[in-house]
Amino acid sequence: MTREFEEPFEDPLKVVRKGYVDSPMGQLHYRTCGEGTPLLMLHMTPQSSLQFQNTFPLLINAGFQVIAPDTPGYGMSDKPESPPSIEEYSSVFTYVLDSLNIKTTAVVGHHTGASMACELAKSYPDRINKIVLHGVPLYTPAERQERLSALHVDLSPKKDGSHLLDYWNWIQSRVGEKASLDACHMSAMHAFQAGEKEWYCHQAAFKYDMEKHSKL
Length: 216
Hints:
Number of helices: 9
Radius of gyration: 18 Å
Number of domains: 1
Helix content: 25-40%
Strand content: 15-25%
CATH topology: Rossmann fold
CATH class: Alpha Beta
Number of strands: 6
Largest sheet: 6 strands, mixed
CATH superfamily: Alpha/Beta hydrolase fold, catalytic domain
Shape: globular
Distance between the termini: 62 Å
């Protein structure tokens, strides 16, 4: 028995394709979809490229090719052996661009991703033609030091599972009613996926002098 459709069963341009590329920090996972103007999207910590998934259809319809990697240590990318700097984090994304034969791209960065987007534009000006920053971690030296002193959230497992509820309550105390339950759930899942190295990218962002490096 055959089935016929008046319209294609699946629009190939709207299929989110996943891939891996080798980098100095191990295998880097990414999602890509659409055709047209390249747009590199860098997520916040401890999320992954899934943070942007609801925007993919809108961006595809607007004529973009979305490239959304998982930062090393988050999502499905390998974990670095030691805490990288923002400069080291940002450099690995060029391996994704190279694997997709993308010479130049616009870049969007959210929070820690904004720091990496800024550094990419600074270190690779011939490859970044536009930059969009959201939730920029622009702190004074005192604020950065304060955040560096409180990096570690205890994610170690407990026999009674209370570590799961403890982290959930911690998220709720930070976002209150500002975020949906689905968003809170995704944040918790990503944090536990990152595990004991969850704090690596936050440390890099809080050590990074955004005001100094944003003078492109």
